[in-house]
Amino acid sequence: MRAISAMLGFGLVVLVITGCNSTRWGFLSHEDKLTKPDNSQLPTVAALVDYMNDNAGRVKSIQVSALEVTAAQGVAERVNLHGKMVAEKPRGFRMSLDGPLGFSQWADLGSNNDEFWFWIKPQPGQKVPSYQYYCSYKDLDKGVAFIPIPFQPDWIMEAMGLGLYGPAERYQIEADEKTQTIRLIEKSRSPQGSPVRKVIVMHRREKKAPEPQITHYLLIDDSTNQEICSAHITQTMVDKATGAILPRKLDLHWPQENATLSLVMDKTAVNVPIPPRAFVRTPLSGVQSYNLASRQPDAAVQAIQGFGPK
Fold first, then answer.
1. What is the pLDDT of residue 201?
2. Is 306 inside a domain boundary?
3. CA distances from 124 to 1, 69, 127, 160, 220 (A)
4. What is the CATH number of the domain that holds 169?
5. Alpha carbons 71 and 16: distance in angstroms, whole number
């Protein structure tokens, strides 16, 4: 379950920071609308970025009261979890997951403007201590933190429609005539400093919810051209009050570990007030905190607290 724990610990805090802005092509200007398959003209990068930012601008916060998560590694290991999640711009995120049949808390993950953290319940036979891992964004930006996976927490607010895109100069555009898709490609670096490509894949023809317009967020190793991880949006939903389009079903893949994380988000409320304490790292009973920058645990063992709206 090591890879599944890592997928939960960062894939979920990457999932909120990756934006599904899925079916508002009518907001493109007349000359920049999507073209028919027999027309080679493409919309401009600026038009696509404006389209994505339009959707993201409608959403300030998200509260998911019914979250179902299936974590799997290969075909042998699989666990079904359920819980709740809240997210708020710019970096507010909190997720609490309970184990199968609601037995005991299984995971607690969060982020605020200063830091991110995660805790996964110890698994049977696990010899490594179960810490509450945390890291400041300042240390992450300095490159001094030890991050055990090759993707960044900040890459999740985009998949939930809370990110901001641009400037347009960051991206290159490519068209795949075979699949009738468009790709926006951005050069970046992994937490370990390796060159990577962040790729947003979208249908070229207009789609309507629940079918997604944007289908994939890919992270590609620039030196090997191999996929490092990906988020695949399979179903979207529309918030009636704001018109914002958000993911309802999402799959995260980590090919190196043969790990998959599937999420179904129901009872979702947009732009509702969220208590500030939801985004505060709270102690866990009998669990030490571990600083990923100093690479050592804190001295004190802590006491438990809850979070979020009841």
1. 92
2. no
3. 10, 20, 9, 33, 34
4. 2.50.20.10
5. 17
